[in-house]
Amino acid sequence: MARIARYYREYGIRIVRGFMQYVWDGAGRQYLDCNTNHGAAFLGHANPKIAEAVKRQLDEILVVPLNFQTPARERFLEEFSELLPAKFGVIFLQSTGTEAVEVAVKIAKKLTRRRTIVAFTNSFHGRTMGSLSITWNEKYRKPFEPLYPHVRFGTFNAAWEVDKLIDEDTCCAIVEPIQGEGGVNPAATEFLKALRDETARRGAVLIFDEIQTGFGRTGAVWAFQKYGVEPDIFTAGKAVAGGLPIGLAVAREDFGDVFEPGEHGSTFAGNAVVMAAAAAASRLLREEGVTARAERAGAELAKALSEVNSRLAVRVKGMGLMLGLELRVKAEQFIRPLLERGLLALTAGVNTLRLLPPYMITKEDIELVHHAVSDVLRRAERA
Ligand SMILES: Cc1ncc(COP(=O)(O)O)c(C=O)c1O
Hints:
By secondary structure, this protein is an alpha/beta fold. The chain has helices at 36-39, 48-60, 71-81, 97-112, 129-133, 138-141, 162-165, 189-202, 223-227, 272-287, 290-306, 335-340, 363-382; strands at residues 15-19, 22-25, 30-33, 88-94, 116-120, 151-154, 170-175, 178-179, 185-186, 205-209, 233-236, 247-252, 313-319, 322-327, 343-344, 346-348, 352-355. Helix 2 packs antiparallel against helix 10 and helix 3 runs parallel beside helix 10. It is globular and about 60 Å long. The structure holds pyridoxal-5'-phosphate.
């Protein structure tokens, strides 16, 4: 029998079932899922409202080329449009986050006919060659160089440097409103405002990468709404189709006709089952008050993390249910001990323990996080 190539560190647990914020292993052991596959299960595992929509679509049709209309895509457009500020009138469909970034950059390049992409220290935008070129961390980039050469990295949050970064050769600036993989680092409002002003002044496109922050996780549908700064294009992915593969770029209405037919495309983009799931997920986001619940639960979880009494804990970072606990030591060593205490978590950067739970996390779940994190840090202090 063949084997699946290893991409990530493996933890030796076989997950067989999931429901809402929990998953179970083959021995029936329950875990609270604050990993959610890097945020993709934000609306819960097998959320009945999404699962029902997928089952219905499976009986209708799975595959319809983008050359034709189909009800699943129409329903998606109707529901998803409700989540968009007025300025954003056009959606470029893809199947993954990294492709969403690729298409956003292609739009900017085609519109401006310029070469240089401005990105920032500690950024993460994906692992295909274009997205990798604008991802900061050497660990991801180095083995694959040379990458796209015309990239200028500025210092994240250095608002005072922005006017020197962007010039007549800049096609776009791309930034995460809160850096996810880079360490759960929120952008400063003045920094995003400086980027907005300078890109507009120089005729460059401003792209926000909302693949991790978007779709309710930070307590707003889109994190940029918390900052009051609007980009020209933003990307989304992860939970938008309730856990099925999706990525998309949303742009100003006047960017809508940038591509000639055939100039850009993707076989699985807009897949009917994914669209049915994304329509149900978008409706659920509104009907269940997901953003308000993420805001409330996020405040409780942040408080619980800040009350972890350990000299290894430095501070809590993030917004809503995108939270990090910065530590004085490497965070990876705690993932396995947390698993043993029934908690799936992530790291971010080197020293940050990252939690991306589903929106329906309860007070009892938050207590479990508090106890598990306190316990593993106390033990490490004594070791
Ligand atoms: C901000 C950001 N951009 C892009 C990506 C890439 O998304 P995908 O893994 O779906 O290609 C990620 C994934 O973690 C991300 O967090």
